[in-house]
Amino acid sequence: MAWFALIVAGICEIFGVAMMNKWQYEKKTSIMLSLIAGFSISFSCLSYAMDTIPMGTAYAIWTGIGASGGALVGIFFFGESKDWKRIIFITMVLSAAVGLKLVS
User: Fold this and answer.
1) What is the per-residue burial (b if ≥16 Cβ within 10 Å, else e) of 71-85?
2) Alpha carbon of 60 to those of 45, 64, 69, 80, 96: distances in Å?
3) 27-49: per-residue pLDDT in tens?
4) Strand runs (DSSP E) across the chain, as ranges?
5) Would you give the DSSP letter of residue 51?
6) In terms of CB atoms within 10 Å, which of 38, 41, 80, 104 comes out highest?
7) Tens digits of residue pLDDT in 4-34
């Protein structure tokens, strides 16, 4: 269950970052509330996951999911660069997160 919570935390982190970016273009209360909700749920799930998963592993995986997911959301929804070098480094971050899971 802790690994599921960690994945949910990462997804909510991605959502929070996407709302942060959206806030830059539209200053709506609903966007700010979504941003706060996304990060709040993310931190809550991360905290729950860290009851079972070692802190270093949980934080690294949560950060990897958030960073990779944020970059992919930027590419697919906000028109950021799709340069092949970016894709390689996103893949490397995800590979490192999977590697941590395998050795934990």
Assistant:
1) bbbbbeeeeeeeeee
2) 14, 6, 14, 24, 9
3) 999 999 999 999 999 999 999 99
4) none
5) T
6) 38
7) 999 999 999 999 999 999 999 999 999 999 9
- Check: pTM over 0.85? Answer yes or no: yes
Both tokens of residue 69? 């997911």
| Both tokens assigned to 38 | 């996304």
- Does residue 101 have a pLDDT over 80? no
Spatial CB neighbours of 11, under 8 Å, sequence gap ≥ 6? 65, 69
Q: Copy the structure tokens of residue 12.
A: 């909510």
Name the packing angle between helices 55-77 and 2-25 (round to 10°): 40
CA 65, distance to chain mean position in Å, is 4
Structure confidence by residue, pLDDT tens digits, 66-89 = 999 999 999 999 999 999 999 999
